[in-house]
Design brief:
Oligomer: single chain
Order of helices and strands: HHEEEHEHEHEHHHHHHHEHEHH
Shape: globular
Number of helices: 15
Strand content: 5-15%
Distance between the termini: 50 Å
């Protein structure tokens, strides 16, 4: 895509984010409706339920994406426990980060994030689990593009990676935001593989929430769903940074999505740099928008899916549980615990990592 002249950027920012004119509350009704939907212990060891998958070797046909470890290569504590790996699955090169010891635990990220959203809780999880934090197909440092970004299709690609390439037979699954759409479809299609499921801050399009209604709750959902327009307006690294840095505080605790006035990002500049690094790639930027363009298909697929009886933990932002749970209940029938994470907006694992890690570990231990 042709870089945007710098003098045009202010008008684009006004169109996308200016003056709050396009910002709609994500909190509806009396209870609210959030529609967004020490170092760890031993070095990495394969869980008993896995067949070890070697890291990608450098070479002309297997060279990993540049800068895939930019955010972690100088973090000695992180690298003592975790490592980046790549594997071919479904014609794509999938990136994931793994480490720890114990039963396997898989983490699926949302938008506009990558595996990196889990970094604050991964050390705690790795004390009791072998952790696998994935970049979803086409996103982050995973390369290639699936035929569709509907969550049923993405779940099948994730299954090929986990089952056929990494070799996981049984594991606990945690999924956030649109990754929760993939998570539900994974549990629905492959219920025997998932011991327990943690569904984080994502109302499910389906019988209780049509995709058309879903898109009315926030300007970004309607905008991201448009054909071609998002890529034309957010088409170089400067635009991506402007979009993400303006968006992150809106759905953080105290942000406009929750009726507040917060303008400070919950992420540091270095943390934002990591997300901008990947979403500045045109194919990754497009893949992120495709997650929203496929919501109608997600609605149809979820409505047709077999309800899930896997033990489920539901976590939401503060004030969002009452609005989210009715969209989840028809599809995830065995929600044994449902919790609002205190002092957290949409970015649960980053805004209150202690509470999120505690809830996950307590639930998987049972």
């Amino acid at each position: 895509m042709t870089p945007t002249p710098s003098q045009n950027r202010p008008s684009r920012r006004r169109l996308l984010l200016g003056a709050g004119a396009l910002t709609l509350s994500l909190v509806a009704g009396a209870a609210g409706w959030n529609v967004l939907g020490g170092a760890a212990g031993a070095p990495p060891a394969a869980a008993s339920a896995t067949r070890p998958q070697a890291p990608y070797a450098a070479g002309p046909a297997t060279r990993p994406p540049a800068s895939y470890d930019a955010a972690t290569k100088h973090d000695a504590a992180f690298n003592a426990t975790f490592e980046h790996r790549f594997a071919e699955a479904g014609g794509m090169r999938m990136h994931y980060v793994t480490g720890g010891r114990g039963p396997a635990l898989v983490l699926l990220h949302g938008w506009p994030q990558t595996w990196y959203e889990w970094r604050k809780i991964m050390p705690a999880l790795a004390r009791q689990h072998t952790v696998y934090a994935l970049d979803l197909p086409g996103l982050g440092d995973s390369e290639g593009s699936p035929a569709s970004f509907d969550k049923k299709t993405l779940a099948r690609h994730v299954h090929e990676l986990l089952r056929d390439r990494i070799g996981l037979d049984r594991f606990d699954l945690v999924a956030h935001d649109l990754g929760g759409g993939v998570g539900f479809q994974y549990v629905s299609q492959f219920p025997g593989q998932v011991k327990s499921y943690v569904h984080m801050d994502y109302p499910l399009p389906g019988p209780a929430l049509p995709a058309a209604k879903y898109r009315t709750f926030s300007w970004h959902m309607a905008f991201n769903s448009q054909r071609s327009i998002p890529e034309k307006l957010v088409d170089d690294p400067g635009d991506v940074r402007d979009y993400l840095t303006a968006f992150y505080p809106q759905v953080a605790h105290g942000g406009a999505a929750f009726g507040g006035t917060r303008t400070r990002s919950p992420f540091t500049e270095a943390e934002t740099d990591e997300y901008v690094r990947t979403y500045s790639r045109p194919h990754v930027l497009r893949a992120g928008f495709e997650l929203y363009r496929s919501l109608d298909q997600d609605e149809r697929d979820n409505a047709a899916a077999a309800p899930v009886d896997t033990p489920t933990l539901l976590l939401t932002a503060t004030g969002s549980l009452a609005g989210t749970r009715p969209t989840v209940a028809p599809l995830l029938r065995n929600v044994t615990r449902a919790v609002e994470i205190p002092r957290a907006g949409h970015w649960l694992a980053e805004e209150n990592p202690t509470a999120v890690a505690r809830e996950i570990l307590s639930f998987t231990a049972k």
